[in-house]
Amino acid sequence: MFMHNKKLQYTVRVSEANPVLASLMLEQFGGPQGELAAAMRYFTQALAEEDPGRKDMLLDIATEELSHLEIIGSIVAMLNRGVKGELAEASLSEADLYRSLTQGGDSHTQALLYGGGPALTNSSGAPWTAAYIDTIGDPACDLRSNIAAESRAKIIYERLINVTEDPGVKDTLSFLMTREIAHQKSFEKALYSIEQNFPPGKLAGKRQFADLYVNASQGNGDSDGPWNSGGEWKRLDDVVGQIPLDGGAGSATVKLTEEEARDLSTFMQRLESRVDEQATPAKRH
Amino acid sequence: MFMHNKKLQYTVRVSEANPVLASLMLEQFGGPQGELAAAMRYFTQALAEEDPGRKDMLLDIATEELSHLEIIGSIVAMLNRGVKGELAEASLSEADLYRSLTQGGDSHTQALLYGGGPALTNSSGAPWTAAYIDTIGDPACDLRSNIAAESRAKIIYERLINVTEDPGVKDTLSFLMTREIAHQKSFEKALYSIEQNFPPGKLAGKRQFADLYVNASQGNGDSDGPWNSGGEWKRLDDVVGQIPLDGGAGSATVKLTEEEARDLSTFMQRLESRVDEQATPAKRH
Amino acid sequence: MFMHNKKLQYTVRVSEANPVLASLMLEQFGGPQGELAAAMRYFTQALAEEDPGRKDMLLDIATEELSHLEIIGSIVAMLNRGVKGELAEASLSEADLYRSLTQGGDSHTQALLYGGGPALTNSSGAPWTAAYIDTIGDPACDLRSNIAAESRAKIIYERLINVTEDPGVKDTLSFLMTREIAHQKSFEKALYSIEQNFPPGKLAGKRQFADLYVNASQGNGDSDGPWNSGGEWKRLDDVVGQIPLDGGAGSATVKLTEEEARDLSTFMQRLESRVDEQATPAKRH
Amino acid sequence: MFMHNKKLQYTVRVSEANPVLASLMLEQFGGPQGELAAAMRYFTQALAEEDPGRKDMLLDIATEELSHLEIIGSIVAMLNRGVKGELAEASLSEADLYRSLTQGGDSHTQALLYGGGPALTNSSGAPWTAAYIDTIGDPACDLRSNIAAESRAKIIYERLINVTEDPGVKDTLSFLMTREIAHQKSFEKALYSIEQNFPPGKLAGKRQFADLYVNASQGNGDSDGPWNSGGEWKRLDDVVGQIPLDGGAGSATVKLTEEEARDLSTFMQRLESRVDEQATPAKRH
Amino acid sequence: MFMHNKKLQYTVRVSEANPVLASLMLEQFGGPQGELAAAMRYFTQALAEEDPGRKDMLLDIATEELSHLEIIGSIVAMLNRGVKGELAEASLSEADLYRSLTQGGDSHTQALLYGGGPALTNSSGAPWTAAYIDTIGDPACDLRSNIAAESRAKIIYERLINVTEDPGVKDTLSFLMTREIAHQKSFEKALYSIEQNFPPGKLAGKRQFADLYVNASQGNGDSDGPWNSGGEWKRLDDVVGQIPLDGGAGSATVKLTEEEARDLSTFMQRLESRVDEQATPAKRH
Amino acid sequence: MFMHNKKLQYTVRVSEANPVLASLMLEQFGGPQGELAAAMRYFTQALAEEDPGRKDMLLDIATEELSHLEIIGSIVAMLNRGVKGELAEASLSEADLYRSLTQGGDSHTQALLYGGGPALTNSSGAPWTAAYIDTIGDPACDLRSNIAAESRAKIIYERLINVTEDPGVKDTLSFLMTREIAHQKSFEKALYSIEQNFPPGKLAGKRQFADLYVNASQGNGDSDGPWNSGGEWKRLDDVVGQIPLDGGAGSATVKLTEEEARDLSTFMQRLESRVDEQATPAKRH
Q1: Between β-strands F12-14 and A234-236, what pairing exists: parallel, antiparallel or unpaired?
Q2: Does any domain span residue C13?
Q3: pTM metric for this prediction
Q4: Facing E133 at nearest CB: one of D74, D120, D130
């Protein structure tokens, strides 16, 4: 069960209200790399996790990410606290309010639609969606997804720090960024605690294709690197000449029943294409 | 520039039409871990990549993933080839068609809406969305995202193989699964070819919080593991007692202008909450 | 800050694994009336709430809803616990696994894509979206939204109880349903503690239109009720005869600059419609 | 059946073209609290409503909301009427057009993608989605949802009025806002005409949990109010000490078949976590 | 302004309740080719249309499509009228209700989430989205979009007719299908009433590329037809040999300021890729 | 199978970095009328196409559209190449970076979230969705959809050209625009090569309703044109007087079983509406 204490995990001190900066901060509130996505990624994994150690870790970090959602949401709420009263009380002239709302970012939507409250959207106003969550229920994959997600969140915080002048906001963002580094380390430890982590799953795959590098993009710019060269790789350069790689026809076929084949043949004949020249509307111009 | 050859990279041999199995296969066509997501993830990275070696690798693999999209789409098309003619030509009785469409999965939508063609949805009919793509334009992060994505795609193929009896489909799925293993290896090689890959970005974070493990979920089930114990970690157990971690008040504050403060005060008074007992509609019941 | 204890708020006892029932339960996990929507609705309101009493209440209930998300997610995880192992270990024949996955509901996607973990989708596999959240930052509105949301959640639980035979699941769902009743009461109390709760906001509107009932749907079936009849209502029956209600022209106009008017005129002439008979492709058939 | 008359329900008089203001107005055209959402909410309820009186009311109001969609859409069309011709006829220099498109809001997308026509998006360009509609087919709930929706729409109109200088637009928006007040009253009358409206549905819930207030958020800021105190409430403060509330173990369990248990055990062993220290890539940095 | 009459445009006679068939019918209620998409496509075009004749036509057809939305929604409501009462009143045993809800299609979500009311989703439960609407505000394009949309809607109705045994439903669907044919004809007439309808817009394009057919897919299966052969076409077969088609370098370049170039160079060096062999985690397995 | 050559189909020469212009260009990268939508529309059609000629054409054009996606994506990458380094290296002051990010359009999201890489969103940041793709698997419909789609894409390019001063960008956009014209012609040729292209499908519809024009929008502004007048049309003006068009009751009915009828009756009684005056909360104000 969750419990809550009204103290934040880290103090939020904002120097002045600024709704445009607020709208940028939403990237880590309701954006794809933000704290709700993090919390829900780990929480859904925890619920289905069978290993007690990983379950505990996932619950620890999910709970902390919810606390970070609270921190970043509090930053947004503080930055919007000026415009909230002005809009609700109509204290400025219409022209001044209009100007204040359309000065940049998507702050207009934050004010008009959400009344200055932190909304679960990214900085462009796209609503948060569970499509952001890539949990698939295999620990060796999910931990890799978590490592990647933490690294991305770290960078988004770094970018937000780079555009923020407010020292209090900067300080709190630095704390949040640092915690992503710590979480990334935890997830790496947990991944490498699984003996059979590569390839994930049980099936080994077809030996002859596991070390093959297909040079599908050619021409000026072809390069060598450890990802396609060296003792671990066979490289296929004559791609068109070698396909299909199974030595078959390279076509797609299915065995149909007689009835299915007859119906399909009727369908094809009804819609077959004449190959002689056709007058068409567009031709006239 | 892209070119296309009508031969597939791997031959597709389907034993019999089966629209329900087709709808399951969509997971790798228009699903979150499917081939369009893979192709677009790498392609968008390639366009902005400054390093020539990584750019070449990303284009190679993006191009191959498009070719895999073609293979899995061809499997779907073959599996639906029976129902396509039957529905378009209305060759069965209505009752038989109705039965054939509602026998499981989401094959009904595939038939009614897409006419048996492969649709860019997952196996539940959710349309593909770019929200699946987690590219953020930092190579040390994007490569981690790619490693994770390949591992997930490998598992989805494994699950599809496990539910497929058709030997031809199984064989082609095994090829596709194996290629994900190869791609995962390439991306790992590329990640470890970047010297400064951890933490990603330039900012180091706050030292005192980088090795801290916050035991936010407590009670029966607390566990130790390399992700929270050992020489690299300090652990915080008395969480409520220690917050906020900066030693401040743990509150969120903003400095408002006089006008902002006045408006907000008006807003608060207008909407303040009486704390005495209120009769409410629900009470009557 | 959030804290977590590994005990659930209410014990979950599931009699047997059943992935189809699991997929139905998702309605309250990742569906529009489910627990994540509830938690996020109240949590986002709490962050921007200025009234200390309401803020406390919103945090109390948001935190409890997160704990309910954990309970319903645990039910899903238990119901899927059988298929999870079978699919990952491929212990059944392909035909048996295929049958078990396509027996109804959207359990196929839950298994293939999420590996049996609880996914943030509704029972049809539509991913959770913040578009479900109707917070607008005005307490007199948001509390009404909360009352309505709790009433809806109560009914979805009632429907799930009605289709569940498992006594343990039924018992836990009854607990969750009851809590929605309690929350609805709290939100009603809070709404009626705001003196100026109707109409919400500051503007009173145009007097002559506030008590007008427009009988826009006519013909057989027109009815009287307290919503359109009695001393509080004026009713408009001759709608077409009376529009526009402001006594003007009923048209839409804008004053354009000379340049704008000239451009628009060019645009209109370029695309104007000939009214004489036209031969068209479709005519030939 | 619907019929249409080319007169608007209320005259629209716009003083000058202004594409940025147009983009703000979209909030009530294709936004979550806008007129399409209103019309579709009531229309879908009307189609399934069994009570003749409520069905009539829902059709009356749905039809009027469609007429309001027409009014707000006409405001948008008028405000965009200048840029429409300029962009289509390329009458300005590229630099002037570019400046006029990027002066604020999301007017750039309105011009480039929709050619200045009113689009079914909110003011940030997020496409309208049926996820906005919370109809669940129970009148006692749906009427509460309608009351809440009308109150929200009222406030969004108030905010738009507060940022609009144009007297004609202001006047029309005031009309639309007032109608939301009238609709809210109708829906309240209809709700209280249902005797058994609380709790909605048939099931009464578990007595011991219906009057319980769970103080899940604690610490500085805990407050009393009619929503958690007084004769109608029992309050639970020692939350961690009392869970689970059923007196059980607070765990989640399921009875598995022998085969299921064996598969799960294999799965767990294959993926179990070693708890000794692991060297990991991130460690090297 | 819209008006409504409670008579339907066409009588709906359903022989027996059938929630699975209801869920298929949703394709034309809240699906991409359904009646809401049609109504909103034409209605948004009408609001911005400058030509009075086309505006009138678009309003006529939009209004009729709303009336068709009412008809198809009424079919859904009738087909669900049995399950609605059973679920709300819990009149069947839980097992019977469970069976009745999971017998096919997505009828489970229709019952649980929407209580049997017609929902604005497609037959797989994907919520309606304005992304279905392709209006761009150019009449010569929008009319083509309308022609295509009507042709698609006609086919979806045909498919629904083919799976429906109920003679009353079949009759009403035939009416709706026929109206799509009539609308398609109207839109064709309107398109060919615009003199300058091809190419749409004002700009003519680059002469040398307007009649060029690029044979980008080669190999076995290359075909000739009026779309790539004959007097109107030049064909490019040696694609790789001829690109770029402008005779330039085929690269992408931008002139950067000195500062921009310096920053980019720092960025590249920081993240450059070592090309020597790297030990990676995956290698160990 | 797809192959790639690192030369672009057309050279991209950008005069100076400009992230706001980049964000406008996204309309043709990840927008509804953009190149990914085009490529995927034709590619999905190709996979299911039975006619070899059309299949070849669809693959040719799909492949070329992918190459156009590469071109427009390269334009975006070049326009963002300045801000990418500045943000990653934090070379400007925070205030300068903030200003550069919030100067218009949605360039702030492009920088913060995507690091300046081309993202699969439209110019307002709405993620690309397969809901944009209207393929239904009937060639006579799909070709009409393709014709319409090409005409729309042509106009979006024209609008982008009109707002672009950069001569290199203008030149490349003109190439891309021209290719849409060529593709539109190919699809028209292919449509008119199908003998039975109108009405699409096999069913002819109800004769008496195929030539009927329903004048559903009346009043001032009613117009005549070839779409509603002349020898091919019967026109219905007295709409309310004539409905339902089948001469029936205009109602919706279903035959219920006795049990279903009884449950429904219980449901109706439980929720029936009292028609006498009700005191309601809103009344008090």
Answers
A1: unpaired
A2: no
A3: 0.96
A4: D120
